[in-house]
Amino acid sequence: xxxxxxxxxxxxxxxxxxxxxxxxxxxxxxxxxxxxxxxxxxxxxxxxxxxxxxxxxxxxxxxxxxxxxxxxxxxxxxxxxxxxxxxxxxxxxxxxxxxxxxxxxxxxxxxxxxxxxxxxxxxxxxxxxxxxxxxxxxxxxxxxxxxxxxxxxxxxxxxxxxxxxxxxxxxxxxxxxxxxxxxxxxxxxxxxxxxxx
Length: 197
Hints:
Elements: E1 3-8, H1 14-26, E2 30-35, H2 37-47, H3 55-65, E3 72-74, E4 93-99, H4 101-108, H5 115-125, E5 129-134, H6 141-153, E6 156-157, H7 171-185
Parallel strand pairs: 1-2, 1-4, 2-3, 4-5, 5-6
Helix pairs in contact: 1-7, 4-6
């Protein structure tokens, strides 16, 4: 079973991360969710999903929310003993969705101050797929330089930029387009949007 780590940081757009997890679980993948402290706060504000700070309580809430079992895991942001922290147990891919510019900058600088940043670093050093989904606008020069550094290090930058050729009828359609593009990059089949042509 393919293993994916999904990181949700403090950028707006946590709905993208939740929808991505939903689709990965639907496709039969193993998912580990990592939440930055700011990510937990923004997710609660934007979606109403108030997750406990204690990792085991949070895991139970997440499994209930997604109607999932052991295929869904969650580790505390400071838990460097989590299996995903080591290259010997590296996931198949890491997706930070949404990715704040602070998180992007710290990863680009090679810093690993929390588990999410460490997992991203592991993905790069083990040459596993790292997808960064920035949700910020406008970008300043520092943001662009950090994203370029990540790209040069092997990460794929996939901005949360929905298209409109599929004639979206709802916010959900816009979310599904971005999530579908992430799934395309992970080679996970989906039917979230109508393809061009």
